Amino acid sequence: MAYENILTEKRGKVGLITLNRPKALNALSSALMAEVATALDAFEKDERIGCVVLTGSEKAFAAGADIKEMQPLDFARAYLTDFITPWDRVARNRKPVIAAVAGYALGGGCELAMMCDFIIAADNARFGQPEITLGVVPGAGGTQRLTRFVGKSKAMEMCLTGRMMDAEEAERAGLVSRIVPLDDLMEEVMKVAEKIADFSLPVTMMVKESVNRAYETTLAEGIRFERRMFHASFATDDQSEGMGAFVEKRSPQFRNK
Ligand code: CAA
Q1: Nearest CA to 239 among 227, 248, 231, 250?
Q2: Pair (61, 79) in one structural domain
Q3: Which of 47, 111, 154, 238 has its CA 20 to 30 A from that of 67?
Q4: 25 CB less than 6 Å from ligand 1?
């Protein structure tokens, strides 16, 4: 499939999506986000893919929703077209998705990174929700996901002032899982993605579903859900292989069944 706004590539068991609108700092137009959804659909269907990486350029992961596309919008058009809602596709991906963030991750760019399962940041990454400076509210989960990541005080300050956070502050605050030097970003992220993709796919998907439950339900319900997933994992061939390999002192060969 030929894309105009993204590049896609399969590297072994890892599906790589690179946002590619360099002249607009990867501003997230509706067309770009539709392509991201199509690419995710393809990787989701591809049984050989066990993990997806979403990245941008060294200067910008994404500088937000496309302001030039939004400028002429009025309420009726935004409401009738359910503007931005199709972006939720990223958060609904069932296979793990890692955001590899270098440079600006602003507005919708920060929100897109937060829709992924975790963020590995280059040391030049900058995160922010500058929508307030444009006279709008964040629209792709910024007020909700950022608050869950970094807590109310920091999220409130970021959303009310539009201030950017550098990579170190983002790591301290829990927004990113770790920081790596810019030059090593893709190599490091690919190593992590390959590691995940080598595990049992049904089990990595169950882990993802279980962790996400922690954000959607009570502790008691979340623990119940996890326990059911744990029991279900004993129905996979991969449980026999994983535990058998441990006992036999060899490396497991997961078959994703
Ligand atoms: N939408 C459309 N175009 C954008 C863009 C965006 N979000 N961000 C940057 N661009 C374009 C610029 O218009 C410029 O294009 P031209 O050369 O045609 O003028 C090009 O990208 C390069 O940008 P700058 O010249 O501004 O680059 P810079 O290095 O001087 O500044 C920046 C970089 C600080 C990121 C600055 O571009 C900026 O502030 N961008 C906007 C950030 C923003 O407000 N994002 C939030 C958008 S709203 C949103 O995302 C809503 C939501 O919650 C879903």
Answers
A1: 231
A2: yes
A3: 154
A4: yes
Shared domain check, 208 and 116? no
Does 113 contact ligand 1 (Cβ within 6 A)? no
Q: Could you report the per-residue pLDDT of 1-53, keeping only the tens digit for each? A: 789 999 999 999 999 999 999 999 999 999 999 999 999 999 999 999 999 99
Same domain, 127 and 166: yes
Nearest Cα residue to 100 out of 109, 89, 91, 87? 109
Record the tokens describing residue 34, joined without a space: 């539709």
Name the residue with tokens 């929100």: 111
- Specify whether the CB–CB gap between 254 and 200 falls below 8 A: yes
User: Residue 211 sits in a domain of what CATH number?
Assistant: 1.10.12.10
Query: In this prediction, does ipTM exceed 0.90?
Result: yes
Strands 97-101 and 118-122: parallel
Q: Identify the active-site residue in 24, 102, 131, 139.
A: 131
Q: Is residue 254 part of a domain?
A: no
**Domain co-membership, 10 together with 112:** yes
Q: Is the same domain home to 23 and 129?
A: yes
Tokens representing residue 158 in the block: 């970021």
Ligand 1 neighbourhood includes 65 CB (under 6 angstroms): yes
Range of the domain at 239: 200-248
The structure's pTM equals 0.97
Per the structure, the count of domains in the chain is: 2
Determine whether the shortest distance from the Cβ of 140 to ligand 1 is under 6 A: yes
pLDDT per residue as tens digits for the range 143-154: 999 999 999 999
Among 179, 197, 215, where does a domain finish?
A: 197
Query: Annotated catalytic, 131?
Result: yes
B/e letters for 14-24, b = 16+ CB within 10 Å, e = fewer, are bbbbbbbbeeb
